[in-house]
Amino acid sequence: MTALTNLLDLDPEQLIAYCAELGEKPFRAKQLQRWIHQFGAGDFDAMTDLAKSLREKLKTRATIAAPAVISDHTSADGTRKWLLDVGQGNAVETVFIPEENRGTLCISTQAGCAVNCRFCSTGKQGFSRNLSVGEIIGQLWMAEFELRKTKGIEPGPKGERQITNVVMMGMGEPLLNFEPTVTALKLMLDDNAYGLSRRRVTLSTSGVVPMIDKLAQECPVALAVSLHASNDGLRDGLVPLNKKYPLVELMAACKRYLDYAPRDFITFEYCMLDGVNDTDAHARELVALVQNAVNPVPCKFNLIPFNPFPESGLTRSNNGRIKAFAQILMDAGIVTTIRKTRGDDIDAACGQLAGEVQDRTRVQERMQKMAEYQKKFGKDFGRIVEVRT
Ligand code: SF4
Q: Which residue out of 106, 113, 299, 350 is catalytically annotated?
C-alpha cells in the first residue's frame, strides 16, 4: 500500500501539481487549500463543493495530519501551550500569547536544537531532527482552529481570526531547517491560506549569516536576531554559533536584509543575565555596535528577563538593572522594550520551550550518542546542521 500524501506538506504550487496528477484543474487546488487552511477541514467529506469522485479519490491517497496533541495547558494569563508529538519520542511546543489587539503564536521548527545557547533550555536537549512543512504549518493550523473551537468561533474567512501574528521563536533554529521553514512561511502569507502580512510574521535566528541572505531573496519576513551579547568574546560563550559568524558579519547581514525586509528595522533579542551581559558598559557597547559610523543597523531592542532553569547556572537580572540598561539604549535613540514574562506557570516563557518533553530517556540517549560521535569525529560533529546555498 502506498503512503498517504499529507496535504499540509504541500505549498500552493505543489498542491496544483498534486491535483494535476489526479487529473484535476488548478482551481481545485485553490478550493482544497481554502478548505484546509481557512476552514480547518481535516476530513474530505466536509469539502462539499468538491465533486464526490474527487473526495473519494483523496480519501484513498491523501490525508491532512498535523502533529498529535500530547497536552494542552492554559495559563492564568491566557497563554496557551500545546505539546505536540512529532514521533519517535520527540515532542515540540507551540505557544499562543493573547494580547489586547492581537494573538501571537510562537512555533517550533526543529525537535531540539544544535546551536546550544547557554541560556536556553531547548539547546540543552540536543538536536533531534528537522520538522517537515506539515509539522511546522500544522502548528498554526491546529492552534487557529482549536482556539476558534474553544471560543465557539466559526471556521472560514468570516470567523474572527485568532492568530494575527506568528513568531518562529520556539524550539530550533529556523534557518538551519531552511526549505521547510520557507515553504511554511509562504503558506502563512498566501491569500488562499492564512493571508498574514509579512510584517506580522517574524523569524528569529541566532545568526546563520548565509541563510539570512537567502531568506532575503526567498521570503523576506520580519527578522529578529538573538543577540544577547555586545562583543564577540561574550557572545562566543553564550551563542556558540558566533564563533562561525562573528558580530561584524552578523551586523553586515542584518544591514543587507533591511533592503528586503517588510519593516525598516531589525529586532534584537537580548536575554538579561545577571552579572553576565547586563552592565552599563555592555549597554554602551551595544549602542556602539549598532550605531557605528561604518555600518549602522536600524534596530529595536527587546530585553528578555531570563527564565532560570537548573542546569544553566545563570540568574535573571533584577528589574532595576533591566530598566537602567534599557534607559541607556533609549537615551541613544533606540526603541527598547522589556518583554513581559508570560505563561511562567506553564513553562511557556521564552527559553523554556523544552520543559515537558515526555520521554526524557530518549533525550538522554541522543545526547549520549552525540557525545560518542563527537569523540569519534571531533568536537564540532553535529553542532551545526547547515543548508548550504
Ligand atoms: S536560543 Fe534558539 S538557537 Fe539558541 S539553543 Fe535555543 S532554540 Fe537553539
A: 350
SS (H, E, C) 63-94: ECCCCEEEEEEECCCCCEEEEEECCCCCEEEE
Cβ-contact 108, 91 below 8 angstroms: no
The dihedral through the CA atoms of 247, 253, 259, 260 has a sign that is negative
Pocket test for ligand 1, best of 92, 108, 117, 168 (most atoms within 8 A of CB): 117
Which one of the listed residues 24, 93, 173, 269 is annotated catalytic?
Answer: 93
- Regions of the chain where pLDDT drops below 70: 1, 341-389
Exposure string over 9-19, b if 16+ CB within 10 A, otherwise e: bbbbeebbebb
Residue 19 contacts residue 51 (beta carbons within 8 Å): no
Tell me how far the alpha carbon of residue 222 lies from the centroid of ligand 1, in angstroms.
Answer: 18
> According to the model, what pLDDT value does residue 39 have?
95
Distance 19 CA to ligand 1 centre (A): 38
Q: Which atom of ligand 1 lies at the shortest distance from residue 120's CA?
A: 6
| 318 Cβ neighbours under 8 A, 6+ residues apart | 274
Instruction: Tell me the chain's radius of gyration from C-alpha atoms.
Output: 21
The 10s digit of each residue's pLDDT in 356-383 is 333 333 444 444 544 554 454 444 433 3
- Spatial CA neighbour of 254 closest among 292, 285, 208: 208
> 245-257 pLDDT, tens per residue?
999 999 999 999 9
Joined together, the cell numbers standing for residue 380 give: 564540532
Beta strand 5-6 with 62-63: parallel, antiparallel or unpaired?
Answer: parallel
Question: What is the residue type of 158?
Answer: K
In the prediction, which pLDDT does 343 show?
Answer: 59
Residue nearest to atom 7 of ligand 1 (CA): 172
Predicted confidence at residue 340, as pLDDT, reads 77
| Contact criterion met (CB below 8 Å) for 19 and 7 | no
| Beta-bridge partner residues of 6 | 63
What is the structure's pLDDT at 123?
Answer: 76
Q: Is 249 a catalytic residue?
A: no
Q: Using an 8 Å Cβ cutoff, are 180 and 356 in contact? A: no
